[in-house]
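Researcher: I'd like a candidate sequence for this fold, 199 residues long. If you have to choose between options at a position, lean toward the conservative one.
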């Protein structure tokens, strides 16, 4: 069933009243971010509003030409949003200026925290290596060998022996299991499973 012009106007007004962002708003923010060398202040819930707008757009039951227009708007909004994240991340990572945390969204702080953890691990390995602390490296190796990842299988997997010499499987599509890190990563990278979110 095709959506009438009145319904479209109502949907657009609902989106505006709910506080979600339209394509033109995201484009303006992106343009400002690209044109200025410093990180711009954005509302803390900007990315949540964009996600809400994308969810609303994708949920619209349009047909024919209207559906094609909706799909194109979804593509443009998603692409603009990704470009804005990439542009802001480049500025955050550049270190050209002291980082003003008040300009970061919570999602950007989450990414920054992950990068700092990565750098900390690199420094830990390099320090142990350079200082000749083989026991520290052995401890890191032991932690990785015992690390498990919970995965959800996307296709059936035959039984196999893990790097810990334990037997795993067989698994059916949609089964969930905890596997040794190396085995889990191999299956995930091969498209046989995805990492499952554990609450």
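Model: Candidate sequence:
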């Amino acid at each position: 069933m095709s959506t009438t012009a009145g319904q479209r106007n109502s949907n657009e007004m609902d989106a505006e009243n709910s506080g979600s962002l339209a394509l033109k708003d995201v484009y303006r923010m992106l343009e400002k971010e690209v044109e200025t060398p410093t990180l711009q202040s954005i509302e803390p819930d900007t990315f949540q509003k964009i996600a809400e707008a994308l969810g609303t757009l994708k949920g619209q039951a349009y047909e024919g030409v209207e559906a094609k227009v909706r799909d194109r708007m979804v593509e443009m909004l998603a692409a603009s949003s990704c470009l804005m994240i990439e542009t802001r991340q480049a500025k955050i990572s550049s270190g050209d200026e002291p980082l003003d945390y008040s300009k970061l969204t919570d999602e950007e702080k989450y990414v920054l925290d992950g990068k700092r953890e990565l750098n900390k691990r690199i420094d830990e390995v390099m320090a142990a290596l350079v200082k000749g602390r083989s026991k520290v490296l052995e401890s890191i190796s032991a932690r990785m060998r015992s690390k498990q990842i919970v995965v959800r299988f996307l296709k059936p997997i035959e039984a196999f022996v893990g790097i810990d010499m334990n037997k795993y499987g067989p698994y059916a599509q949609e089964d969930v299991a905890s596997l040794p890190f190396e085995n889990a990563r191999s299956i995930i990278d091969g498209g046989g499973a995805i990492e499952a979110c554990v609450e």
